[in-house]
Amino acid sequence: MNQSVSPPETALFRPFAWLFQKPWQIALTVTLALSVVWGLSGMLPVNMAIVAGLSIFCIGLWATAALPEYWPALVFFLVGSVLQLAPAQVTFSGFYSSGFWLLFSGVILGAAIRYTGLGNRAGALLSRVTGRSYTGTLAGIVAFGLALAFIMPSSMGRIALFVPLVVALADSMGYAAGSNGRTGMVAAAAFGTWLPAFTILPSNLPNMMLAGMAETLYGVQLTYWEYLVMHFPVLGAGKAVLLVLLIRRLFPDRAPDVVPIQAMGPASRSERRLMLLISLCLILWITDSLHQVSPGWIGLAAALVCLWPYAGLTARDCIHEAVKIAPLVFIAAMIGLGAVISHVGLGAAVVETLSGYVSFSPDNVPGNLMALTGISTLVAMLTNLPGVPAVMTPLAAEMARLTGISLGAVLMTQVLAFSNVFLPYQAPPLVAAMQLGKLPLGRISLLCVLLFVITLLVLTPLSLLWWYVTGSIQGV
User: Fold this and answer.
1) What is the DSSP string of 316-359?
2) What does the pLDDT look like over 417-468, one tens digit per residue?
3) pTM of this prediction?
C-alpha cells in the first residue's frame, strides 16, 4: 500500500502544502486527539472521551497515511488494553471476526491462483467478457462484480474471490503493477462488487444488521423486492455507472492487450483441483443462510486445503511469503475500534447531542429526511458503516416521533448513509480489497471522497425524489 499522500499540484493548494507533510499530519492528528479527550472529559464519561480521542488518532493517521497503517492499529490495542476501555473480547474482536479470516483466506486463494496458473487462464476468459477497450473492461468488471453480489451474500467473500482474479486479468492484459490500468481494474472490482450491493438486501453486512434489528426491535420485516425497488435504480445502478466514469477519469490508461483463449493449453491437475475448491467455496458461501457456517470459516477451510503440503496448490513457503501481518493487524484494529465505540456508547451519545441541535418539523418531510441522513452519515464517519444500524436503529422510533415520518422511512435513511463511504477506514471490505490488490491509499481515498460528494449532492436527493415518485415513503 502506498504510504504517502501527494500534495495537490494546483496553485490553490500550494499555500497549504505543509499540511500534506507527514510530520505536520502526525502532529496535527495527535493535537486534535488530545484536544478532543480534554474537551469531552467534562461532558462525557472519561472512558468515552478517551475512546473519542483514540478514534480521532487512529482514523486521522489511517486517512492521511502519515504512518504505516499497522502503527496506529497497535497503539489502539495497547491503549485499549492498558486503560481497559472495553473487555478484551471486544477490543480484540477483530481477530476472530469473519472479515479477518476472509482476508487471510483471500490472500491464500490469490497465491494459489497465481501458483497453479489458473489466474492466467481466468484472465484470458474474463478478457473476452470485458471487451477490448479500457472503458469496456472497467464496465465489464463492475457489471460482473455487481452480478456476483446478487448470488453471493458475503462482501468479504466476493472480494476474496474476485480481486485476485482481476489482478490476474490485469497481468494478462499487460498492465504492470502500479500502472493506472491495473489500479483502475482492481478498484472497479473492489468498489463494483461492494458499493452498489448496499441496495441488495442480503449482500452486505450493514443491510443485514438493519433488517435483523428492525425486525427484532419493531417487528418491521424488510422484503427483498421492496428494498431493491426502493434503492437499486438510483443508489445501485446509478453508482455503478458513476464508478466507471470516475475510475476512468482518475486512472486513465491505454487499451488492454488481449490474450487469445486458444493460446492456453489444457488445464493442469492442480488447476482443476483449485477450480473445484473455489466452486465448492462459492456454493457454501451462497448457501450460508442454510448451513449457518460463517463465510470466514469456509474461507479458512479452503485456505487450509491450499496450504496442505501435498495438495500442490501453493508453494511450500507460501505462508511465509504471501501472508503479511501488517494488513491483518490493520483490519483487526479497524473492526475492534468499531466494536469499542459501540460498547462505550459513543455513537449514541453523538446522535443524542446532534439531535438537540436539529430542528425537526412534521411539515418539512424532505428536510427531516436530509437531516436524518446527515446524522447517520456522521455516525458512519465516526465509527464505520456497520456502526450506522447499530447506533441508529434503536433510536428510530424516537426519530419517527420527532419528525412525523413513518418508522420505515426513518429506517431507510440509514441506507443512504451507510452506502456512502467518505474514506476507506469506514469499510473493512474495502480495506481488505486494497490489501489484496495493493491499491494506493491516497488515490483510493480521493476516489472515495469524490464518490461521497457526488452521492451526497446528486444521488441522495434523486433517491428521495424516487421515494416520492414510487410512494415508498408511505409504503415502507
Assistant:
1) TTHHHHT--HHHHHHHHHHHHHHHHHHHHTHHHHHHHHHHHH--
2) 999 998 887 887 888 888 888 888 888 989 999 999 999 999 999 999 998 8
3) 0.70
